[in-house]
Specification:
Largest sheet of chain B: 3 strands, antiparallel
Oligomer: heterodimer
CATH class of the domain at 46-148 in chain A: Alpha Beta
Structural class of chain A: alpha+beta
Number of strands of chain B: 8
Helix content of chain A: 10-25%
Number of strands of chain A: 5
Strand order of the largest sheet of chain B: 1-2-3
CATH superfamily of chain B: Cytochrome-c3 Hydrogenase, chain B
Strand content of chain A: 15-25%
Strand order of the largest sheet of chain A: 2-3-5
CATH architecture of chain B: Orthogonal Bundle
Order of helices and strands of chain B: EEEHHHHHEEHHHHHHEEEHHHH
Number of domains of chain B: 1
CATH topology of chain B: Cytochrome-c3 Hydrogenase, chain B
Strand content of chain B: 5-15%
Largest sheet of chain A: 3 strands, antiparallel
Distance between the termini of chain A: 35 Å
CATH architecture of the domain at 46-148 in chain A: 2-Layer Sandwich
Structural class of chain B: alpha+beta
Number of helices of chain A: 5
Helix content of chain B: 40-55%
Number of helices of chain B: 15
Radius of gyration of chain B: 21 Å
Shape of chain B: globular
Radius of gyration of chain A: 24 Å
Chain lengths: 165, 367
């Protein structure tokens, strides 16, 4: 290709790069600086509410991966289900949140935490009491607006960086 | 004395940084010139079509996220529109607007990656793609606010969207739409007139208008060849007939035109989002749909304009909870059919530029 004046386009492009020297940094240093996640974050664990759960296994049926396993017995006195065992294999879980959406009693939530790596495959299988909510296992507001309201506001990059022209 | 030469076969990929995934090309070279090329697919085959035949219509949505993972929202939309057509589900007004906004944001997102990766391949190493990833990050923040995930959203459902937009969504979107055109100007200033880029991409890898139509290419690849074909205009789905926008087309069908068409399309996407925000209604975000959808016996072929081109789903229903046959028209796979004709005759360095300008996503090619 022939150009009449070679280098003008390159110089104009370098102007943009030069301007970036005086701009705010976009990245934050992760383990020290943490941004707030979305209130609806689907973290890599499930939270189970044993009081609300009726053992209807709607969550297990809706799971596309078959990661939830529930065993129940029928209580002859009240004719209701007793949950003997609920077991979630978080290794199979793809965090799609369909179980949370399907549950008619709001007894299952996605977790809000994302740093849940384990050293062994066996530790990924969580059952019964391990699934209950606790201060270090907060529930996320996915499909649950009343929980979402209490979580911290999400940090947005669009509000953090505002370029003045 | 003459030196005896012969064509040399090299394997380009499957693990090569500029094949955008695990794509393999069997290239026959004469020195540096490409004599022949044979694409080899299937390194990322996960059997998504077969898996979908064993799942409920809602349970397929996480699978469609994993087709074109850079434009998961468009895949969700295409699947949901197909199921709605099959089962006769109505979508509320607010959900339609939200869907259009999300689909256009996804188009911006995908084009930013496409242009950034193309510039990265053609020698503008890392700087432009990092600038573009910064803007993509802002869109991903919005998606995260809505759906809780940043890549596999699983957000749309037959009959609407899974959750309503939170109150902080529209102000944040407003800010983003205000900023975006200025950043697009900046990208144009950065490289659109750059002499090195022009020399490397103008007139390289020409896809003629006839071949583009005959190989049923779609999306920016087809439009760069000068064909004014956009399903949003030609066969409006959702509520696209309510918005004003233009279809940018190229003239030559070379790599530079493909880059330029994507840059111009991003401006049109911003325009559509602006209009949708002004008309954004209140009301229901999801119509009442049974948990297990059982569509009547029949079949449907429904297509949308995904960022990479025409994305279509063919579903056959036998009125059970899972589809009888589920076929995906993967955009990237069909755009790759003209790859050989584009590349043969060019050098190896041009091969990477041409391949980058098609913008493929291996999750969609192999499914």
């Amino acid at each position: 290709m022939k150009f009449e004046r070679y280098g003008i386009g390159i110089a104009r492009g370098m102007m943009v790069t030069f301007k970036h020297l005086f701009r705010h940094p976009t990245v934050s240093q992760y383990p020290e600086q943490r941004l707030n996640m979305s209130r609806r974050t689907r973290g890599n664990e499930l939270i189970w509410n044993n009081v609300k759960c009726t053992g209807c296994v709607t969550c297990a049926k809706s799971c596309p991966q078959g990661a939830i396993h529930i065993e129940t017995t029928v209580d002859p006195a009240t004719n209701k289900y007793n949950v003997l065992k609920i077991e979630v294999d978080t290794g199979y879980c793809i965090q799609c949140g369909l179980c949370v959406e399907a549950c008619p009693y709001e007894a299952i939530y996605m977790g809000y935490s994302v740093e849940r790596a384990k050293y062994r495959r066996g530790e990924l299988v969580q059952a019964n009491e391990m699934l209950l909510a606790s201060p270090d296992r907060p529930a996320s507001g996915y499909m649950n607006p009343h929980i979402a309201r209490e979580l911290p506001r999400q940090t947005l990059l669009v509000e953090k960086i505002v370029e003045k022209r | 004395m003459t030196i005896k030469t012969e064509p040399f076969v090299i394997n380009f990929g499957p693990a090569h940084p500029s094949t955008h995934g695990v794509f393999r090309m069997r290239v026959v070279l004469d020195g540096e010139v490409v004599l022949d090329l044979e694409p080899v697919y299937g390194y990322l085959h996960r059997g998504i079509e077969k898996l979908a035949e064993q799942r409920t219509y809602t349970g397929i949505i996480p699978l469609t996220d994993r087709l074109d993972y850079l434009a998961a929202m468009s895949n969700n939309l295409a699947h949901c529109i197909a199921v709605e057509k099959l089962a006769g589900i109505k979508v509320p007004e607010r959900a339609e607007y939200l869907r259009v906004i999300l689909a256009e944001l996804q188009r911006l997102c995908s084009h930013l990656i496409a242009v950034g990766a193309f510039l990265n391949d053609s020698g503008a190493f890392m700087t432009p793609i990092l600038y573009m990833l910064r803007e993509r990050e802002k869109i991903l923040d919005l998606f995260e606010m809505l759906s809780g995930q940043r890549l596999t959203y699983n957000d749309m459902r037959p009959g609407g969207v899974s959750q309503d937009a939170p109150e902080e969504f529209l102000p944040a979107l407003h800010k983003f739409v205000d900023q975006m055109p200025r950043y697009l100007d900046e990208y144009d200033q950065l490289l659109a007139k750059n002499e090195i880029l022009l020399a490397r991409s103008k007139g390289v890898g020409i896809l003629s208008k006839e071949l583009a139509i005959n190989s049923s290419a779609s999306g920016p690849v087809l439009r760069a060849s000068g064909v004014k074909w956009d399903i949003r205009k030609a066969e409006p789905y959702s509520i696209y007939d309510r918005f004003e926008f233009e279809i940018p087309t190229g003239t030559a069908g070379d790599c530079y035109d493909r880059y330029l068409v994507r840059m111009l399309e991003m401006r049109q996407s911003v325009r559509i989002i602006e209009q949708a925000m002004k008309q954004f209604p209140s009301g229901e975000y999801r119509s009442r749909v049974p948990k297990l959808i059982r569509p009547p016996v029949g079949e449907v072929y429904s297509r949308i304009e995904a960022p990479k081109g025409e994305l279509a789903f063919y579903i056959v229903s036998d009125s059970s909870i899972a589809p009888y046959r589920y076929h995906i028209r993967g955009t990237s796979l069909i755009n790759l059919t003209a790859l050989r004709d584009m590349i043969v005759g060019w050098k190896v360095a041009d091969l990477i530029v041409i391949f980058g300008s098609i913008d493929i996503c291996m999750g969609e090619v192999d499914r």
